[in-house]
Write a structure and sequence with these properties.
Layout lengths: L2 H25 L5 H23 L4 H9 L1
Helix pairs in contact: 1-2
C-alpha cells in the first residue's frame, strides 16, 4: 500500500469516527440538529472521498455506479 492509500485509509477512519461522535453529541443535545446535519454531511463526503482514493476510482459518481451494478 502506497502512502496515498495509507493516508486515505487513516482519514477514512477519522471521518467515520467523527460521524459517531457527532451523532452522540446530537443525541445528548450538545449539538443542534441543523449543525449536526451540516457537520455529518461534510464528514460523510470526506469519508466517501477516502474510499474513492483507496479503491482507485476517479470520481465518487463512478464508485457509486460500480456499486449499483
Amino acid at each position: 500500500m502506497n502512502i496515498v492509500k495509507a493516508t486515505a485509509n487513516c482519514r477514512f477512519f477519522y471521518h467515520t469516527n467523527m460521524l459517531d461522535i457527532c451523532n452522540v453529541l446530537n443525541q445528548l443535545g450538545i449539538l443542534k440538529d441543523d449543525r449536526a446535519e451540516e457537520v455529518m454531511k461534510r464528514h460523510t463526503m470526506k469519508s466517501l472521498d477516502c474510499v474513492r482514493i483507496t479503491k482507485g476510482y476517479n470520481s465518487i459518481e463512478e464508485m457509486l455506479e460500480k456499486a449499483r451494478n
